[in-house]
Amino acid sequence: MKRLFNPCRRYRQNLCLLAGGVLPGPESAQIKNHLAACTDCRKYYEEIKTVAMPLTNWAGNFAHLQPGPTVQNRWARAIQAAGKPEPARRVTPAMAFREWWQDVIWPCRRIWTGLAAVWVVIFAGNFSLHDHSQTIAMKSSPPSQAMIASFKDQQKVLAELLADYSTPRAAERQKFFSPKPRTENETILTT
Questions:
Q1: pTM to 2 decimals?
Q2: How would you classify residue 178: left for phi > 0, otherwise alpha for psi between -120 and 50, otherwise beta?
């Protein structure tokens, strides 16, 4: 939070440029006035100056360091090799597969391994749930008489369970609404 509300934050880049000696004159005067008033920025400027001063005088400080002839030759060969175009190589299917493997599979090998394991489990579960020899035998042979009788019994049971008893049927309506004559109710005894 301190960085968000730090009023000196806008001066930090200019302090780095001042420590390197590349800040223009009018901006340099403004930053120097700020340094006179702000102790935090002055401390930051001194830290940056200790790092930046040897780097600004690098030509004078590192003039005694010269690469040897072997290093110069190696650099020259590297520069010449960089300028030459590479010969076109012939791509074989094996090389293409290897590059594809390195680009697609290898970086995500754990994910691909997990997916392969899931597919193996699914395939094994699917294969074990279906006994193919019994399925083929059931499809080729007609149903037996016992199986047909069993299906008919189950159909009757289901029809009774699904029957709608809320409305009386036509035969039951006759019993409820049309009384029988007395002669039908009485039994005649004949000897």
A1: 0.33
A2: beta
Phi, psi of 6 (to 5 degrees): -85, 115
142-162 tens-digit pLDDT:
778 888 888 899 898 888 888
Decide: 34 and 42 in contact? Cβ < 8 Å.
Answer: no
Interval 13-40 mean pLDDT? 84
Please give the Cα distance from 89 to 92 (Å, whole number).
9
How long is the chain? Answer: 191
Instruction: Please report the DSSP string for 1-56 in residue order.
Output: -TTTT-GGGGGHHHHHHHHHT---HHHHHHHHHHHHH-HHHHHHHHHHHHHHHHHH
How many Cβ atoms are within 10 Å of 118's Cβ, its own excluded? 10
Number of Cβ within a 10 Å radius of residue 42: 14
Judge contact between 7 and 38, C-beta under 8 A: no
Q: Where are the domains of the chain?
A: 9-61
